[in-house]
Amino acid sequence: MAKGGPIRVALLGAGTVGAAVARTLLTKREVYSRQLGRPLEVDCILVKDAAKQREGIPSDLLTTDFNRACEPDVDIVVEMLGVEDPAVDYMAQALMRRKFVVTANKEVMSKHGPRLLELAGENGVDLLYEASVGGGIPIIAPLKRDLLANNIKAVTAIINGTTNYILTAMSREGADFGDALGRAQELGYAEPDPTNDVEGEDARYKLSILASLAFHTPVLRESIYREGITKLTAKDFRYASELGYAIKLLAMASSQDGGIMTRVHPALIPADAPLAKVDGVLNAIQVEGDLIGRVNFQGPGAGFPTTSAVIADILDAARSIAADRPPAPMPEQTNATILPISDLTTRYYIRLTVIDQPGVLAQIATALGNAQISIASVIQKEADAESKTAELVIMTHEAREASMQEALRTVENLTTVAEIGSFVRVEEQ
Amino acid sequence: MAKGGPIRVALLGAGTVGAAVARTLLTKREVYSRQLGRPLEVDCILVKDAAKQREGIPSDLLTTDFNRACEPDVDIVVEMLGVEDPAVDYMAQALMRRKFVVTANKEVMSKHGPRLLELAGENGVDLLYEASVGGGIPIIAPLKRDLLANNIKAVTAIINGTTNYILTAMSREGADFGDALGRAQELGYAEPDPTNDVEGEDARYKLSILASLAFHTPVLRESIYREGITKLTAKDFRYASELGYAIKLLAMASSQDGGIMTRVHPALIPADAPLAKVDGVLNAIQVEGDLIGRVNFQGPGAGFPTTSAVIADILDAARSIAADRPPAPMPEQTNATILPISDLTTRYYIRLTVIDQPGVLAQIATALGNAQISIASVIQKEADAESKTAELVIMTHEAREASMQEALRTVENLTTVAEIGSFVRVEEQ
Q1: Nearest 5°: CA angle at B194, between B192 and B196?
Q2: How far is CA B192 from CA B133, B158, B162, B177, B183, in A?
Q3: What's the CATH code, domain B344-426?
Q4: CA B162 to CA B177: how far, in whole Å?
Q5: Cβ–Cβ under 8 Å, residues B301 and B157
Q6: In chain A, which residues have their Cβ closer than 8 Å to the Cβ of B158?
Q7: Domain with CATH 3.30.70.260 in chain A
Q8: Which of A403, A341, A340, A351 lies closest to A231, judged by CA?
């Protein structure tokens, strides 16, 4: 690591965020260098095709050789490849050569975070990943530092812009899932293959990062319960709204007796809850702690604003290097139990189509009652004279998920029940 | 500074926050010590009356002698006296004896911040003040670190819980200022002498701290334009709501041609703006930067949650001490011009009582037009047959404040104008 001279940054990747970071570092070079008291230089940018012209980026900075990013005079390696391979390998190599590493890669941090952080510690450098969750919103550093005095009770987040855009459209315009998804794809808010977003996998990556940090324990992605938004219909938004609720895809981790409950699924939340008002592609993360109560971080969760988080991490690494400051040690880790969804206790919204005849509700109520679930309200919605069916919307009191699943199987098998249309958990924030 | 042994904390003050910090440090001692890898001990607590019993605080920790807080084995001094004197003097003494200092004192940081931060730098220690603005909400550290890559364009904040509680009551219940204030006083949300809060002075202290940090330039409290909420009436909330606006006391700092515009005053903001939904004693700080766009921090702005911020600073100082880490250097400071309010350009809401006769509006429109101010809408409200007056609500297009003040003087002197009831700036967020 050069002392006194320039601090040299190697960038891996020149996609949307990578190119924006490169251009910003180049155009704001003077400002950042003045703030640091040391010149901050872009050493090289690793790309697949070095011959391709990139606006605002001098072509002599481009390289296709990763080894150039690991030369001895490079201080900071910034990984913005956005895929797992070869990112994880490059990051490990950079850390072992005692480079500070900055990453925007949720997949790598979710799958390999604990190991890479350990590697960073062993090599006396820092691995910074503010941009991996919530785009530009500061949330990793606040969890690492500003909220550290708290026992975190819960993290409740809207951390997938694609699904929040779709749900907002379904709620505002009565659009069905397919139509709202199509529009999101036209506008570039959803990928041609949207599975990762709409099935909650992207949110699960990010939640595993947040939960690991909030609860000082490794939370593996696989241990997080996941359910997507594809089964929601325009009707559910209408009924939820009548009942005073919004529907959001929530990523949640909370501490309860016996361990940590983690899950990603659509949820009814009261229409006046702060998270109910987070619309479109915005992200929001609500943290509840024993000292602070509830605090909320909101902002743009993807795209260009992510540049803010990546460069903040670069400047933080650069300041540590300039001051010859070792990175702050990680707080002691515990090994909490990650609880299965069957241990959840919450309220439920159930929409079901039944044969329109007397005694049906009694059968359903009996099935629920046998599983110790009591009904808070039932509304009979549209009856269809032709098919002789009616639609029921049931809200339950608090019940155990295991009991609810058992009751649902019984209800599903009733000859008077045509279909369980929707089953959504209710989060009274 | 003891190495390897316990890190020792001296607390100054045992008021609401001071006592909560003391109790929390004592009860969570094990947790914090494990996180640090070093025991974290409360060395002493400076109080006025050491004989007074304080629940949960061993009386042998109490002292009335400041020198005990500055003994060589104390590492961190935490100032929670909540007044200017002797806090500023104690802080300076502690810094000169190379103690890390943590403070929750907005008045001291607003008036003496730059000098004390310099003193900390000279002595190789840190002065941390997260708790001085926004209670437990992380905002100082995010401005210092997480948003550092941005050129900040604007900070727009609701940072006084008392006035926000009063304005929320006026808005929701149609209460008048006096009634809403009375209730806030009964509930302990307003002081017996509420001047500092309702006249915007408290918000001005906090804004000077935020603006100095956001714009890397000293922003003196005196240079911030200030206007309180005492002249607002229930009517203004009704009319604003009809026009699609909420009324909030905003603390704002923004960069514009020629310098930084800073001000604390009531403002009409669109009812669907995020800040319009921040109600009651909550605080919210919105930061706009060139990279991030807009990001929002919301949470409880005072009382017990402040403990979270004070202890986060203590843990941060303790981690630096444990790792023998010098504090991060301050980014280079500039010396921007703080602009007078007369340089502001915005829209205005004016409520005035006029003689109910033809030609009055023409006179007012002429007076405004002569000052280059054009009217966006006029609504005639209640006419009073007895006094032969009518009420007009005028919304202007963008205009310069200097022109507006000139026009208001002319309007005020019109014989057909009985009174200018309200004059509120409009912030289109």
Answers
A1: 135
A2: 22, 22, 12, 15, 11
A3: 3.30.70.260
A4: 12
A5: no
A6: none
A7: 344-426
A8: A351
Chain A residue closest in CA terms to B299: A295
Amino acid sitting at position B336: A
Contact between B35 and A148 using a beta-carbon 8 Å cutoff: yes
Collapsing DSSP to helix, strand or coil, A245 comes out as strand
Count of H-run helices and E-run strands, chain B: 14, 18
3.40.50.2300, 3.40.50.300, 2.30.42.10, 3.40.50.720: which CATH number matches A7-136+304-322? Answer: 3.40.50.720
Which CATH number does B140-300 carry?
Answer: 3.30.360.10
Checking if the pLDDT of A332 tops 90, the result is no
Q: Is the peptide bond before B326 cis (omega within 30 degrees of 0)?
A: no
Catalytic amino acids of B?
206
CB-based burial label for A156 (10 Å; 0-12, 13-18, 19+): buried
Mutate one of B9, B125, B146 to test the A interface: name it (highest A CB count within 10 A).
Answer: B146
Domain with CATH 3.40.50.720 in chain B: 7-133+304-322
Per DSSP, what are the bridge partners of residue A49? none
CB contact under 8 A, B331 and A297: no
Residues 6+ apart with CB under 8 A from B385: none
- What is the location of CATH 3.40.50.720 in chain A? 7-136+304-322
Query: Is the distance from CB of B47 to CB of B14 less than 8 angstroms?
Result: yes
A427/chain B closest Cα distance in angstroms: 20
Compute how many other C-beta atoms are within 10 angstroms of the C-beta atom of residue B173: 13
Measured between CA atoms, the residue of chain B closest to residue A313 is B146
Contact A291 B274 (CB under 8 A): no
CA distance B154 to B216: 13
Quick check: A265 and A226 in contact, CB under 8 A? yes
Cα–Cα distance for residue pair A30/B24, rounded to 1 Å: 44
Residue of B9, B17, B292 best to disrupt the A interface, most CBs of A under 10 A: B292
**Inter-chain touch B308–A326, beta carbons under 8 Å:** no
Rounded to whole angstroms, what are the CA distances from A193 to A82, A85, A189, A198?
16, 20, 12, 10
pLDDT digits (tens, 9 = 90+) for A238-291: 999 999 999 999 999 999 999 999 999 999 999 999 999 999 999 999 999 999
Nearest chain B residue to A321 by CA: give it: B328
Q: What pLDDT is recorded for position A1?
A: 42
Count how many pairs of residues, chain A against chain B, have C-beta atoms within 8 Å.
Answer: 175
pLDDT tens column, A195-245: 999 999 999 999 999 999 999 999 999 999 999 999 999 999 999 999 999
Cβ–Cβ below 8 Å for B295 and A148: no
Measured in angstroms, the CA of A134 and the nearest CA of chain B are apart by: 11
Q: Where in chain B is the domain with CATH 3.30.360.10?
A: 140-300
- Count of Cβ atoms closer than 10 Å to residue B144 Cβ: 16
A24, A307 contact by CB (below 8 A): yes
Contact between chains at A299 and B295 (C-beta distance less than 8 A): yes
Query: Which residues of chain A have a CB within 8 Å of the CB of B36?
Result: 331
Class of domain B7-133+304-322: alpha beta
